Amino acid sequence: MSQERLKVLLIEHDPAFARAMGEMLGQGRELAAEMRSAPGLEDGLSALARDKFDVVVLDVCVPDGAGLANVPLLKSKAPRLPIIVAGDADDETVALEAVQAGAQDYLVKSQLTPGWLERSIRYAIERHRMDLALLAAEEKYHSVFDHLVEGIFRTTPEGRYLMANSALARIYGYATPDELIQSLTDIGRRLYVEESRRADFIRLMQEHDTLTGFESQIYRKDGTVIWISENCRAIRDSAGQILYYEGTVEDITQRRQAEENLRHSEALYHSLVETLPQNIFRKDIHERFTFANQQFCKVLGHKLEEIIGKTDFDFYPRELAEKYQRDDRRVLETGHAYETVEENQPPGGEKIYVQVVKTPLYGADGQIIGLQGIFWDITQQRLADEKIRRVSALMAQSRRELRAKNQVMEESLKMAREIQLAMLPQQYPAFPRSGLESPSAFHFSHRYLPTGTVGGDFFTISALSETEAGVFICDVAGHGVRSALVTAMIRALVEELKPVATHPGEFLTKLNSDLHAILKHTGSPLLTTAFYMVSDWKSGVMRYANAGHPRPLHVRRSQNRVEPLANTTGKSQPALGLFDGATYLSSETPLSSNDLVMLFTDGLYEVQGPQEELYSQAQLVSGVQRRLHLPAGQLFDELLAEIRDFSAGCGFSDDVCLVGLEVAPSQS
Hints:
- This protein is an alpha+beta fold and 668 residues long.
- It contains 18 helices and 25 strands.
- The strands form five sheets. The protein has a five-stranded parallel β-sheet, with helices on both faces.
């Protein structure tokens, strides 16, 4: 038999025993050994650090050691090396203590023989190999035990944990199994959400000894609630009494949530399908009905159980059933949705038109397992579409006729605009009329900006005598055809009132009476404001009357002042045409050379800025004040530009009329 070559480290302070042991190893029959001797523990540890050995023989009494305490020290330095302890005492207690300390054997020096030494070394090596294999198996078991996804437990019938793996601690929210075991000491009271759940568990285990898929809600350490599934068996003693329960736990929260979501989804689907007014059905690949909603059952006149498993041939005429199944096969063979409008004739009913949509149904393997159809009655819609087409044709004809009428109306409005503009003064009178060579005592300017094709603003300038000029301005509410017609009537009335034109109050009183008499028959008189003034250059006096109109501005250039013309009578002056018998009184004010009287309609200042703020009359007065020395025409143009800028380019929303009377500068 071939001998096995081993390296032996002897830690021994007695040279004689070292020589004797070396000789005994040399006499070995089944193994050959190379021995190396170290006189003390420190030397032995140094040798282990430098070289590899198969076994260590340790004298329990080395001077620099600590007896049997040297064994754990050696094992910590060389955990995979078997250790044999040698001593002088032939004592079973010492031998047992040596083995408990980690040694594989204990030898009595005085009883040692070559055979005994060889056998002890072989047995020590073999036992150590078995110990290492067992240790590896235990480590592998614990690795699997602690790394399982499922939790593993062992509990007492009273509700205490005897054992738990890392997965169970993780599921329950604890850092370690030890924390779980120490914290969760009453499973029934502290683990289950439903208090009776532990009692159910105990009852089932008493009855069956095993439990599978026991699902419950439990509290985690942080108080959150999860779902678990337990598989368990009861371990009993020889007398049949339960010692403990052991089993596994799986976190099924996501699965339960998915199942709950699926139930809600299915409930929602069926609720939707059963409440929709459309007819819905499903068929298998053999074109047999597998589902129908209540609306479809109602149309067929059969209960659901009378429809399931049947085909179209059981309910429709043969020709119609064949047509339906041709459409079905098209969907089943191509996998494409099919949509059409088809004729449908319910049993015993009249033919109707229905909108049909058929789509394929797929199984979990991705294969077509049938189809779903939905259809609804569109007979009324078809009739309505036809009616809409007829009405659309009539509307198109009406639009063509309306465009032709609009063209005529636009041409008429264009002519009305030209006529209205012709009604305004085309040239201004000179004062005195006979003074052809000398400059006129009065100079006039105006700006007229209608917002529509025709407007509701009007003014006129008349020479009443060699020294007197009459200026009239009015504003009829609105800026359309109706307002333009009223301004035309006012112009005619103004012409008829020339006999009283030198008296502003009397003039407006008579104008109001005549206008009221005309408008009262319309049932809805328009608000009309007016201002009339008579200026005498010779006397330097201006007389005026106001019928609810914005007060003109008197620009006294010599005094560098702008002021609205006040009503000196103290009496309220209403707009024209509203009240029969209204009386208007005249006011008067001095008129100096180089003065400017500026008349205007409210469209001039009723303008919105970018923040929807209005351009006020105070801003108007300020704008005129800054330009009071400019000629009237230039002043008007700059003022209009300022107001347009204020509106951020939006311009005027109402008709604008500006009229200016300037007194010529003194020639002296």
